Amino acid sequence: MGCLFKHPFAFILNLYGVYKSSENSYINLFLKPIQQQAYDCLWVGFIDRITFFSCQFLFACKDNIENLCLACTSLHQALEEGNMFGKRFKRRSALLKILYKLVDIGSDPLGLKLARMILALKVSGKNLLNVCKLVFKISRNEKNDSLIQNDGLLDSLLQILRFEDLQTNNEAFLYCLGAIKFISGNAVLLNELVNKGAVEILFQLMKQINNIKENDTHFSNLGHLLVQLTATLRNLVDLPLSRCQLLCSGAVSELWVMLEQRMNDKDICTNIVRIFSKLSSYNDCCAALADCSRCYVLFLALLNKHQKKQDLVVRVVFILGNLTAKNNQAREQFFKEKGSADTLISLFQTYNELDLNAKKKKHEGEENKSKQKHPSEAEDVLIKLIRVLANLSIHPSVGAVLAANHHIVALLVTVLEYKSIDDCEELVINATATINNLSYYKARNSVIEDKKLHIAELLLKLLMSSNMDGILEAVRVFGNLSQYLEICDFIIQRKVYKFMIALLDAKHQDVCFSACGVLLNLTVDKNKRAILKEEGGIKKLVDCLRDFGPTDWQLACLICKTLWNYSENITSAASGFEEEDINTLLVLLASFLDEELALDYNFDSDLRDYHKLYWETEFKPVAQKLLNRIQSHHSFLQPITITSF
């Protein structure tokens, strides 16, 4: 066996720079006895003995942290090359005593190297607990992340979770998972954890814990451990690979089991819903959550049990909003669960009252005069809760039931009564959008219908605001409500129609569509058609047809229907239209009715087919009739040049 240095301890001495002078105090006091023992030893046991003596030397040199760290690295390498990690090293106990004494120095860089070495020696019991506490303490300081990243400690921590006995080492597991949780807050280390199989290891640990029944003495003791485990998973699900592993491994199912078993533990429940809230933002994960047959039962149970726990409630209603956003089956399944509507109403009342009380206090105090930049906690719950109601109301049967629910409609109206768009934009817009969805249903027992005039009054505040999103939602509600004669009269009396005509100039496709819908409903009444002559209404409709027609046949159809209603009783084109508007309209209609010109737009195949279908079935019939009517009443036709649009 060869030796790198002439002296058996030269590799350690070289690191410390003490191999230069025989007058050095360390050499005089410490080296000579070791040197003699080393020369006396057999080469067969060389690594064993040199490791032991090196450790004694380390302890003697404990004042120099940097050199200690370097020496620890060399010692670790020597132990590893000598295959003496685990419990094979016969001087293991003496070595551990030295390493634990060095821990008392209190250096984090040194502590990490010592911890890695101690864990590699496969300690158990109190020794395992103490080293896990050490790593936990060091990992709490994010400044140590770079040290952990370069020290290869993650493998050792994950091996504890994978191979050690959970029930015997319950407390050690707690500190180990706590350390991993802190480590997972670092993006680089988070990726490293995933690549080392952390998701699968945590999944197996979850399964093991979930199999422990509530009457088992270990059940309650593992609660704190699960808080750390779920907090770590919460960080892990930020990565696409982790989410994929969670779905493929069945970890989502285990989380549902844990949620049901630990319903009384608010911290565990909060961490689980944080995981689910992140997952629900992705379509495939959202579908996996909805696959659990008891997901809505469990969410409702959580909401009822922890109704005042805002941080938990806000995430549950956020998840429900995502689950019901695009899935009609999910809307129906949730609403069919016993007590679903009552739970939502109770939450609405609770947080609406909290918000009202907060507003009163704000008015009474002088310290809150500055405009609030973000929603309050109560407002945040209301925003997400109302979004759930808006999603549910898209389902025909569910929407009809909700429209007839006095409590829900009254609460939505209350929001519009005491909140302005400047107070909380998202809350007011969500409430208005939900009222719009509910106003679609014309059932006899519709509460929206009963309150329609009061709602119309409240919407005027939104129309007068400078917030285009708020204006759009208000106009959409007027679009549905203007099917009632009383609302049409309200629109005329309060000059709301002038606002609708002005909005045609907005150059905003959705706004123009909704405003045109209101004008179409007004022109059903022969006595109200003349309003289109005011404020340049006809010209603005023709401009909208020109600007948006080729890309939105629904809007083009709506414009043509409005002009068709308007022109029903005219005796000549000139009596109802300005000459310029007539000529423009004739050119536009002739162009849009030419299939080659009208459909000459770049869309993907699915959109192109839909575009063509709507053009053929909806736009073309009414546009052709309108063109024929105008031509039949137009006494003088000028030559028309058809151009492509």
TrEMBL record:
InterPro entries: ARM-like (IPR011989), ARM-type_fold (IPR016024), Armadillo (IPR000225), ARMC2 (IPR038905). GO terms for biological process: sperm axoneme assembly. PANTHER family: ARMADILLO REPEAT CONTAINING 2, ARMADILLO REPEAT-CONTAINING PROTEIN 2. Gene3D superfamilies: Leucine-rich Repeat Variant (1.25.10.10). It comes from the Eukaryota. SUPFAM superfamilies: ARM repeat (SSF48371). This is Armadillo repeat containing 2.
